[in-house]
């Protein structure tokens, strides 16, 4: 049986899953600043692609193994990034009940879920933008919203995977070389 990945790369892929979970909790739930989540996708991929080969102690061997290790860890991390983004969006989309604090104008009159999210977009002054996209009710808004979220999640997977490849290439260029045994000191 031929191996296509090093064991260290498989472990690094799971480290990438943990990293994506930590970043998602930090920037989608605790401090909800979604653009930071987007911006961290590429550097996370670079880091995990490099780490996959460092963890495997890939000093020698074919470039194809270095690339496979990096891509595996990057894609696994990227898929986690994308799924977590969609999961958090689904949670807030389905649980929206129209609540806004008094400074934002008070509670919206809507049905929980898609209707409240749609009303929130309208209240934020996006009616013209939505109509230009063909969005005129909660049903068309739902299709529009989820197509945008799927695009964003796909971009997260792509950025993290490309970052993983880049990290693997950086490792391949800068990797430590095979150790050569030192010659014994001459005796006199």
How would you sum up this structure in a few lines?
This protein has helices at residues 7-30, 34-39, 41-55, 63-95, 114-123, 127-132, 138-174. By secondary structure, it is mainly alpha-helical. The chain has one domain (7-174).
Notes on the protein architecture:
By secondary structure, the protein is an all-alpha fold. The chain has one domain. The chain is built from seven helices and no strands. Helix 1 packs antiparallel against helix 3, helix 4 packs antiparallel against helix 7 and helix 5 crosses helix 7.
Q: What topology does this entry show?
A:
Layout: H1 7-30, H2 34-39, H3 41-55, H4 63-95, H5 114-123, H6 127-132, H7 138-174
Helix pairs in contact: 1-3, 1-4, 3-4, 3-7, 4-7, 5-7
Radius of gyration (CA) equals 23 Å
Number of helices: 7
Q: Which stretches are poorly predicted, pLDDT < 50 over at least 5 residues?
A: none
Structural class by sheet pairing and helices: mainly alpha
Average predicted local confidence, pLDDT = 90
> How would you sum up the major sheet?
none
Shape: elongated
Give the ordered list of helices and strands.
Answer: HHHHHHH
